[in-house]
Write a structure and sequence with these properties.
Keywords: Cell membrane, Membrane, Transmembrane, Transmembrane helix, Transport. Helices cover 80% and strands 0% of the residues. The chain is an all-alpha fold and 309 residues long. It is globular, with a radius of gyration of 21 Å.
Length: 309
Amino acid sequence: MTPEERARQGTVYGFLAYLLWGAFPLYFAVLRPAGPWEIVAHRIIWTLVLCGLILLLRRDVKWLLDLARHPRRLAGVAVAGVLIALNWGIYTYAVLSGHVTEAALGYFLNPLVTVALGVVILHERLRRTQWVAVGIGAAAAVYLTVDYGRPPVISLVLAFSFASYSLLKNRLGVSMSALRSLAGESLTILPVAVVILLWLGQRGETTFLRDGPGHTLLLLSTGVATAVPLLLFAAAASRVPLSTIGLLQFLTPVLQLLTAVLLLGETVPTTRWVGFGLVWVALVVLTTDMVNHVRSARRTRRDLLDPSA
């Protein structure tokens, strides 16, 4: 396979991953009457079951012993699991409570928050245009806080939880494949899922076996719905440049926003569109800087390899 064919294949994988994530509002809406935390608990359990079956079929389980021998890495995987479970829970709550537009805003803000965390935690130095993008994003957050009459809590929690998750994954490195990582994260937070289901069961609020076989099958499908787009994303990330992934990622919140307004009947006041517009301006600035930086790095690398070019 040529590099061009590999890149095209990776782009298709990435497009499919973000397309599936963009369709999640419709999927989670179909899971009613299950509540957000029941859905999260089932996502954890059935994702672990699916990943475990695949790993067993591949006879790929020895890495668990290695993970257990490294407490710091195990703790990192556990924290990553908690962060992604929090993200899942808040997102599902947003869908089921009619706040999909606020959830979409969170994923628009995510790249800006990721850059900001890189400065604060990793002490990364930003280029001037990156600072401009972060500044516009901060102004948008302030504007939306005034417009909402409160901080956009759902948006901020989604943005910071996923950005923190991404940052932690970056710190953990590439020592674990996407499948192993997802299995490890699900395994470490399995007790949380069990406690949630036991608590809901005591309150008589579980729906798994109460609302018919169709509903049961839908909850069982949460494992596939969680794992498939993540594995597609991992396949894309190994085949295409980061700049391509950066551009594709905006597909998800765009689809979420369109779904909320066109299919789920949510309304967005004109004043709030102004806030979204500020976020989009910040993303255009950030994306343009990223693309230009990648092109410049390629030219520099090409010149070093072939000075006569």
